[in-house]
Structures are given as C-alpha cells and as structure tokens.
Write a structure and sequence with these properties.
The protein has eight helices and nine strands. By secondary structure, the chain is of the alpha/beta class. Bound molecules: NADP nicotinamide-adenine-dinucleotide phosphate.
Length: 254
C-alpha cells in the first residue's frame, strides 16, 4: 500500500517541487498551504502525471487550521509516514538595531511555531505507521548568522534546535528526524516575500550567480533522505550551489 506524505508550503518553490517529486516516488501527497488555487493547479498537474495528491488549505500559524490538516490526513486510508515541514520564509533584511518586531514575529510564527504545531499534530499518526519521518526544512541560516539576517537566522536556528531536540526525544521510537539546510535557492517567491514584493531587490540576490540551486535540487535531497531504508537517519543535509562556498562567499560573474 502507498503511504501519505504531508508537505507544508506546497503552493510554491521548494514545497511544490517536493510535492511533485514525492508523488513521483509513489506517495499520496497532502499538499498544504494557504493559497488553494495554487494547490489545486499542483494537484491537477500531479494527477496528470499519474500521481496521487490532495490539496488541503492550511495556515501553519493557526491551531485550528493545523488540527484540520491532521484530520484530513487521518481520513485517508493510507498510513502517514512522512511530514515535510517546509512552510516558512524571511521578512526584511534589517539590522537587529532597527528590525521590525512584526517581521520577527511573523518569521517565528511561520518557521518555528508552524513547525512545532504541525509536528505535534502529526506525530501520533507518524508513530502509528511504524516507520515515520519528520523532515524540517531549515537553512544554512540555521547555523550561520549574517548582517541583516537577525530575525531569519534566529528563526532558522530555532528550527534547527527543534530538529536536534526532537531526534533525541524520539530515540527508541519509530520516527526519524531529518534536517535539510539549503543555501541559496532561486525560487520564485522567497526573496520577493523577504523584500515586500520589490522585484528588483529580490532579483539582485541572485545577480551574477550562474547556477543557484533551484527548488527541484532541494526536493531531490528531501526525497533521497525520505526514501532511504527507515533505519538510516540522515541527521542533517547541507546543500549549497557550487558558487556559494559560504554564506558570505558567493562567486558572481559581471
Ligand atoms: N529560497 C531559499 O534560498 C531558501 C534557502 C534555505 C531555506 N529555505 C527555506 O525553504 C522553505 C521554502 O522556501 P521557498 O524558497 O520555497 O519559499 P517560497 O517560494 O516563498 O514558499 C514559501 C511557502 O510557504 C508557505 N507559507 C507561508 N506562510 C504560510 C502559512 N502561514 N501557512 C502555511 N504555509 C505558509 C507559502 O504558501 P502560502 O503563501 O500559499 O501559504 C509557500 O508555499 C522555507 O522554510 C525557507 O525558509 C529557502
């Protein structure tokens, strides 16, 4: 029997690519996000390619919405074996001195508390499957800091702390915890969201970088970790484009 994979933030970027890839691997994908029009298009695409997917409207900052996601998962006949906590993002690039508390609050609520809410809601089903996997999409910002990145790096450090803590706490139980830490990934919306819709500023992030990672590259890493034999726990996978040797060391042409 096939099993269920839940992907949060599946309406764009890494989440959408992961949903497509996991469906191709044979999972029934529960694609969750707030924008259901985009999820419906994704589901149609996955089904046209011969896969199985279901769209679920979910705001990871809402307890009720996350409870409804868990109910939608429980209503499916297949066991739930995989949760990909991907919903998240950055807002602003301001110094700590003048950063917006609202931006920080948003980043904490979506990245950190969103991961907490969804993981808590789905853990019973993942454990009941006898072979569960929790993936947390953190970032290289989960172990590095940079100027202007205070709010985002703090949130990603917190997600990394959740992954490490949860792995210790679940030791001896049938749920593994995998942390994925991408560097620069060129997705359609990540930098646009960060800069409040300023397309020029968003594009400048990738200026001169011949080949930044794309969403499919990260989806590939997630799918690889999730499809190893269940006794193999990839604790943490750090992935960057070749042009990015470190957060501050990016090779740009021109
Ligand atoms: N792009 C990068 O360079 C990069 C690098 C390292 C790590 N990451 C991490 O990878 C993840 C995905 O990034 P991305 O580049 O694919 O960004 P993206 O294209 O902006 O996608 C973000 C996703 O999160 C969802 N989301 C935002 N708020 C939500 C909420 N309250 N409830 C449910 N879903 C919500 C969005 O869907 P809706 O708006 O429809 O809800 C969207 O599907 C994020 O956690 C990000 O921090 C990205």
């Amino acid at each position: 029997m096939t099993s269920v994979a839940i992907v949060t933030g599946a309406s764009s970027g890494i989440g959408a690519a992961t949903a497509r890839r996991l469906a191709a691997e044979g999972f029934h994908v529960l694609a969750a996000a707030r924008r259901t029009d985009r999820l419906d298009t994704l589901v149609t695409e996955i089904e046209a390619a011969g896969g199985r997917a279901t769209a679920v409207e979910c705001d990871v900052t809402s307890d009720a919405s996350v409870a409804a996601l868990a109910e939608a998962a429980a209503a499916l006949p297949e066991p739930v074996t995989l949760l990909v906590n991907n919903a998240g993002g950055a807002r602003g690039l301001d110094p700590v001195e003048s950063g917006s508390v609202r931006d920080w609050q948003w980043m904490y609520d979506v990245n950190v508390l969103g991961t907490l809410r969804v993981t808590q809601a789905l853990l019973p089903a993942l454990e009941a499957s006898g072979a569960g996997t929790v993936v947390i999409v953190s970032s290289t910002a989960g172990f590095t800091v940079y100027e202007g990145g205070g709010g985002y790096t703090a949130a990603k450090h917190a997600q990394t702390a959740i992954a490490g803590t949860l792995r210790l706490e679940l030791c001896g139980r049938p749920v593994r915890v995998v942390e994925i830490d991408p560097g620069m990934v060129k997705t359609e919306e990540f930098s646009l969201v960060r800069f409040g819709g300023d397309a020029e500023r968003a594009e400048a992030v990738y200026a001169g970088v011949a080949e930044p990672l794309v969403a499919d590259d990260v989806a590939d890493c997630i799918a690889w970790c999730a499809t190893r034999p269940h006794h193999v726990n990839v604790d943490r996978l750090v992935v960057r484009p070749l042009a990015q040797a470190a957060q501050h060391k990016v090779h740009r042409v021109g």
